[in-house]
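lol ok so funny story. i was supposed to be doing the assay writeup but got distracted and ended up predicting the structure for this chain instead. priorities right. anyway since i did it might as well share w the group, maybe its usefull for someone
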Amino acid sequence: MRVVALSGSLRKGSSNTAILRAFAAVAPPEVEVVLHEAAGELPPFNPDLDRDGDVPPPPVKEFRALLASADGFVISSPEYAHGVPGAFKNALDWIVSSGEIGGKPVILINASPGGEFARRALIDTLTVMDAKVLVDASPQFPHGRKLVDAAGDIADSDALAMLRASARALIDAAAALTLSED
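and the output, tada:
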């Protein structure tokens, strides 16, 4: 099983990205977690570059191929000005019409104080894209920065247990979808 982890943050020392690395570390060995941190490398979304029959810009093509290869997703995004960071929203805009995330389970993680506005915006956006957001299995860490040590790791046993439970829920949801397709 392959899970793509998407960081909504462009910051080098992002607590959201650290949480995704911790998620990958606690995922069962049969799960390959691929971390994507290149949302800032995608060009601004322009529908004129994404019409039927068009070849998308190379970074978009690579991004879509990565997403298409996934059985599920885990997203960790900060909240900026009561919303999703612009570069991450841009990344989502590139896949609205192409459908790589549709029908697949998604875990949302938030490491921002408050963070509820970005969480709701992501749920709305992903639902429109037909993703299966596992809201009850999506942990929130309002003090995410405090979980990250000087080496950029997360050692908090409660946070790791929550991530482990989220990984299990994501695996179960992806397996259930695979069974229903057979």
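The chain has one domain: 2-181. The helical segments are 15-26, 58-68, 86-93, 116-128, 144-147, 157-181.
back to the writeup now i swear
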